[in-house]
Amino acid sequence: MRKGAGSSVDDQGLRGLVFDIQRFSLHDGPGIRTIVFLKGCPLSCIWCSNPESQEFNPQILFNVSKCIDCGTCETVCEKGAIRTGDHVDRIDRNACDECGCCCEHCPTEALKWSGKQMDVSQVLAEIEKDRRFYESSGGGVTFSGGEPLSQPVFLKNLLKACKLSGIHTAVETCGVTKWEFFQGILPYTQLFLYDLKHMDPLAHERFTGYDNRQVLDNLGRLCSKGANIIIRMPVIPGLNDSESNITATADLMVRLGIQEIHLLPYHNYGESKYSMLGLEYALKDLVPVSEQDLQAQRLLFEAHGINVNIGGE
Questions:
Q1: Which of the residues 199, 224, 232, 238 has an alpha carbon 20 to 30 A from that of 129?
Q2: DSSP annotation of 216
Q3: What's this model's pTM, rounded to 2 decimal places?
Q4: Percent of the chain's residues with pLDDT above 90
């Protein structure tokens, strides 16, 4: 478990930790959607484009391109955790207690919080702003992360509030959580966007930090309960895009009666966030998947009678 896992969430689930709310999304469920990103994830996928989503506590990101080297952050930091003039990562992460004082005083927002405590009513108010777009497009809200089921009670309360308000609900999940947490949200979730990252348990553990046994077990249980499921698969060249892995994924979907998959081509758009957190990006030399390879993978799935959507097309 990561530093502070669970410590930012109250036991009643009335408040939780949100790191972003994205409006007018077209690729995370039907229609126009609002995406609520909850912080904290049990996995450490080496291709993750939102590394700030993994920790269970707020974090400080340093954007060197916005820094004017004014020295304000060093002056206000009582822990001596700021090093001005260092344009790599000026924060001593071991000394920093994440009080946020430097972010509050930074005049250019070069130092910025990732993670904000919000209560259910605050999140619902943000979601409600675009109700007219949901109604005209068949959209709604999608809860993502991180892994939203890492904050299970908060997520359940959010879903209940949305359902009572007549807003379509979807949950994007990596599947690594207790089955009882899935049971808790089943009555309030109209669509699951379920990640299948690799069918081989050893490879899954090597690339994400966990094997896939719980992922597959929870997926089977959801299917047995009649849940509405779309599979999502990040396509990472050389890691999970082999014909054998594609075929194994398709075979599983056929057995479970799941008819649709979204292929999400690898991109390196999140690479800059790693340096903002003082982290190394493991796949900096990886070349994105080619269109030719994506179409070949589409054909493999379609040969199994599966509907394929590539990158939210």
A1: 232
A2: H
A3: 0.91
A4: 74
